[in-house]
Amino acid sequence: MRRQFAAIAVTLLFAAPALALDMPARKAGLWEMKMVVEGLPLPPQTMRQCIDQATDQALQSQFGAAAQGTCSKQDIKNTGGTMTFDAVCQIGAGTTTMQGVVTGSFDSGYTMKITTKSSGGPAIPGMAPGGETKMTIEAKHVGPCEAGQKPGDIMMSNGMKMNVLDMQKMMDRITPPGGMTPGR
Fold first, then answer.
1. Least trusted range by pLDDT, from 100-104, 105-109, 166-170
2. What is the DSSP string of 31-65?
3. Would the N or C end of the chain have less CB density within 10 A of its end CB?
4. Separation CA 41–CA 39 (nearest Å)
5. Domain-embedded: residue 20
6. How far apart are CA 14 and CA 63, in angstroms?
7. 181 part of a folded domain
8. Is residue 94 a part of any domain in this protein?
């Protein structure tokens, strides 16, 4: 379970700057997401996330607020239904550069391909310093949330369940005022 949580944390670390960009809202309901990370010793991760309009907006706001002021560059373009983004963000003592392409629909299914390169700061476990990581997220809307799920719930393929809004509240309690400290 600890390994699964670490995999989610690393995945969110790489995806967070992309989520901070002004992406369209996803359709409410249950989304299945498969994430494949090249360059790190992680198996493909599949999860199902229950969202509603308020949860999706809150997630974008939370990540956006965290990245606001830390990114020297956040460019996003939408050309013919294909979105491209380019960001340079300071995360702790390191700098993360990210480029990506999003194709598909935020109503039914999309694919996000992200290339991330980090420099400075502490090394990311399993990755060479200054190394590049490529992540592909394939997401599809599978219908309404299942019985017993609440917006923000993420269900991992191993049965582990967590709520991203609860995780954010926990992070807010342990993060010092003014954001992350260098080297964190």
1. 166-170
2. EEEEEEEESSS---EEEEEEE-HHHHHHHHHHHHH
3. N
4. 7
5. yes
6. 12
7. no
8. yes
